[in-house]
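ARCHIVE CARD
CATEGORY: sequence design from structure
SOURCE FIELD: tokenized fold
FIELD CONTENT:
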């Protein structure tokens, strides 16, 4: 894909903000005050920039600093770097901790703020970073390059350590051992939203009027899904065929025309609507495939009959099955079904007890393509002696006797013989 024009535009706009120098495409800011409802650059909806840019001016000044414990720092009117208020650390105060920031999927976090320390010899004022488990010291502001007591100094640094690229990243100002007054103003934290990596491992498998695509999962934490592009010409003319981002790394493109080659590329897209370049191209030609060979044929003998059973085939255009029988293993098969068997079972009756019968089955699709023979299964039906009739009763009449008894249940029952005696 060609490079998005807005990449250059957003980099230029961000550099004009004079807070710090950002790398990559800026997805969002976390700044120390209330969220602006009207971004000054006018690009909130287009570029997913959310600015909170008053500088501790909100009445609820710690709105974005109290999720992880109410701070004992204060809002104060002097000194301030800009606006009316800054945040004050007084002797005995401990932490000013940000709410959770989603930094998953990024490659850089930019941090900028202004700070003012009355006395550089009254203990450290540490900037700490949370990795999901512990807070680690990052900078001691009393020793920051260029710092002068009672003078506002700008802090501007990037975080590139991947342990902090988590969904609940926090930054904390630790003044727990400092015994003097310190002030923070105009805090901003930028999360760089990088373009997703190009998806790899794309493979295309043809089917009957369909092509199945599969590829390797992307690992970006802010991945939203994938777009699938198709063309009937190699190298260009691609058209996106998915309506919404595909959330899994596989896709079946159906309702295609058999015997036409289709060419595919895919892209990865993140929650900031950044889209990767095209993957490598793959192609496949759907065709009316011969059905798969039926599997796991089993034969169960009965009284002059054999019951067959096998696994269902999964072809969408399956029409049914043919059953073939022989009295010789491996050859001489004769089809025994008159019409296609719709289910994956069959009862073969009228057989000779004591004779071994050998069977194979095939699958047939709507285009009359027939699979190869299944594996052979055999069974030897029995010819068991019928059970003795039960419940015989005799009712006398005028020059006659009426007999009645319970029906036998043998499937090959031919009838009954009646015997009489006067003894």
């Amino acid at each position: 894909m060609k490079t998005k024009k807005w990449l250059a535009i957003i980099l230029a706009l961000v550099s004009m903000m004079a807070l710090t120098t950002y790398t990559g495409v800026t997805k969002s800011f976390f700044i120390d005050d209330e969220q602006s409802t009207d971004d000054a650059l006018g690009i909130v909806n287009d570029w997913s920039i959310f600015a909170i840019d008053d500088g501790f001016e909100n009445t609820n000044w710690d709105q974005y600093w109290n999720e992880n414990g109410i701070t004992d720092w204060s809002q104060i009117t002097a000194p301030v770097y800009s606006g009316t208020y800054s945040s004050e650390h007084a002797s005995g105060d401990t932490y000013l901790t940000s709410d959770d920031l989603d930094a998953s999927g990024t490659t850089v976090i930019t941090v900028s703020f202004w700070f003012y320390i009355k006395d550089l010899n009254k203990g450290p004022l540490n900037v700490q970073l949370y990795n999901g488990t512990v807070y680690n010291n990052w900078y001691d502001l009393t020793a920051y390059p260029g710092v002068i007591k009672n003078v506002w100094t700008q802090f501007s640094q990037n975080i590139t350590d991947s342990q902090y690229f988590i969904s609940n990243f926090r930054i904390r100002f630790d003044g727990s051992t400092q015994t003097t007054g310190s002030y923070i103003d105009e805090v901003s934290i930028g999360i760089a939203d990088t373009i997703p990596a190009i998806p790899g491992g794309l493979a295309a498998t043809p089917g009957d009027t369909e092509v199945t695509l599969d590829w390797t999962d992307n690992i970006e934490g802010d991945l939203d899904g994938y777009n699938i592009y198709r063309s009937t010409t190699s190298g260009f003319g691609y058209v996106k065929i998915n309506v919404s981002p595909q959330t899994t790394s596989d896709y079946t493109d159906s309702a295609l025309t058999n015997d036409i080659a289709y060419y595919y590329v895919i892209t990865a897209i993140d929650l900031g609507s950044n889209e990767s370049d095209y993957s490598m191209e793959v192609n496949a030609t759907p065709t009316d495939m011969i059905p798969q060979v039926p599997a796991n044929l089993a034969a169960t003998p009965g009284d002059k009959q054999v019951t067959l059973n096998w696994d269902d085939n999964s072809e969408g255009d399956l029409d049914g099955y043919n059953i073939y029988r022989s009295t010789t293993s491996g050859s001489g098969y004769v089809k025994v079904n008159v019409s296609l068997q719709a289910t994956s079972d069959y009862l073969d009756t009228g057989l000779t007890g004591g004779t071994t019968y050998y069977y194979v089955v095939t699958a047939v699709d709507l285009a009359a393509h027939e699979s190869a023979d299944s594996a052979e299964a055999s069974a030897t039906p029995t010819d068991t002696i019928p059970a003795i009739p039960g419940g015989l009763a005799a009712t006398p009449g005028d020059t006659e006797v009426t007999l009645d008894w319970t029906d036998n249940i043998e499937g090959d029952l031919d009838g009954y013989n009646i015997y009489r005696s006067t003894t």
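CARD ANNOTATION: The CA atoms of residues 111 and 125 lie 16 Å apart. Residues 1-54 have pLDDT under 50 and may be disordered.
SHELF: design records, drawer C
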